[in-house]
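User: Once you have settled down, look closely at the record that follows, taking as long as you need, and be ready to discuss the fold:
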Amino acid sequence: MPLSAHYCAALIKEAGFPPDVVNIIPDDGPECGYAIAVHAHIDKVACTSSVEVGKKIQEAATKPNLKCVILELECGGEGVDNKDYFIKATIFSDVKDDMQITREEIFDPIMSILKYDSYEEVIKRANDTTFELSAGVITRDIRRGLTLAHQIRPGSIWINTYQTICNQALFGGFKQSDQERKLGRYGLEAYYQVKIIVVKLV
């Protein structure tokens, strides 16, 4: 477990959070994660993991009861040193659509360069993926950039900027990238349940 989690626990205690509002469990991933996923008294699981692990969590969560599972899936990369604190920034050129680096979602400082011949080709290739987290459009024509943003399917799209995230605006993807919205009003909806109470007065 990262030391930052222990530091957060100290800050949470210092801030005076009521008991059991936040629980930090230091343990190995598979055993602890499985216990959380199958626990009948845990109503919701949010997890950042690989696609393979995410599918296992979904499967485990249906065993004792049906619970909401939020998955943000990611793949790892090569570390700069043997401690794996940093990842080397890398640019790949002459990348093709059928290459693994194109077909998978990678959360490292990596850029893949793909050539294209037409605007329509860009849209078709951008939508031909099982991952739809985010996209960036760099253009001198803002109107054309907005048109493209409406024609491609990622959950978050930035024009002439990238990774501009604020707490007021939602963030999240589709397909295997993500299943729920985060941040903003939409990000809260996954964490509460609505019920109705009807009273007959007469």
